[in-house]
From TrEMBL:
Classification via CDD domains: HTH_XRE
Protein source organism: Candidatus Thiomargarita nelsonii
GO MF entries: DNA binding
Domain HTH cro/C1-type residues, every copy: 37-73
PROSITE patterns given in the database record: HTH_CROC1
Residue ranges the record marks as coiled coil: none
Protein name: HTH cro/C1-type domain-containing protein
InterPro entries: Cro/C1-type_HTH, Lambda_DNA-bd_dom_sf
Amino acid sequence: MSDETFAELMQSVEEGAKILRGELPAASEFVHTGPNVKNIREKIGLSQQEFATLLCISKRTLEEWEQGHRTLTGPVRALLTIFKNAPEPAINALHGHQY
């Protein structure tokens, strides 16, 4: 690593420490909001257990998504967006029958 690169890295680390201590404002803040899992499930009219079964996940995972304790990954966000916008085709595509 060159001296210049190392100096830039150290400057970034020092700035990060100042931001964490509240001595320097963060340049950018990104807040990613995902689909509201509970609203989607309730719109479809399924219990937590039914929706978890439909998605092939545990009820606990669904609860953690709904409470915001677990982050939604990209594929999950995409699937939930499909459920939000077209629930019946999504259900039929996954399980071939209506709930």
